[in-house]
Amino acid sequence: MSENRLIGDYPVIGIRPTIDGRRGVLKVRESLEEQTMNMAKSAAKLFEENIRYSNGEPVKVVIADTTIGRVAEAAACADKFKKCGVDITLTVTPCWCYGAETMDMDPMTIKGVWGFNGTERPGAVYLASVLATHAQKGLPAFGIYGHDVCEADDTSIPEDVKEKLLRFGRAAVACATMRGKSYLQIGSITMGIGGSIIDPAFIEEYLGMRVESVDEVEIIRRMTQGIYDEAEYQKALKWTREKCKEGFDKNPEQFRRTDEQKEQDWEFVVKMMCIIKDLMNGNKNLPAGCEEEAVGHNAIAAGFQGQRQWTDFYPNCDFPEAMLNTSFDWNGAREPYILATENDVLNGLGMLFMKLLTNRAQIFADVRTYWSPEAVKKATGYELEGVAKQSGGFIHLINSGAACLDACGKATDENGNGVMKPWYDVTDKDIDNILDATTWNYADLGYFRGGGYSSRFVTEAEMPCTMIRLNLVKGLGPVLQIAEGWTVHLPDEVTDKLWKRTDYTWPCTWFAPRTTGEGAFKTAYDVMNNWGANHGAISYGHIGADLITLCSMLRIPVAMHNVPEKDIFRPAAWNAFGMDKEGQDFRACNAYGPMYRNIR
Question: In 41-69, which positions are buried (b, 16+ CB within 10 angstroms) versus exposed (e)?
Answer without folding.
Answer: ebbbebbeeebbbbbbeebbbbbbeebbb
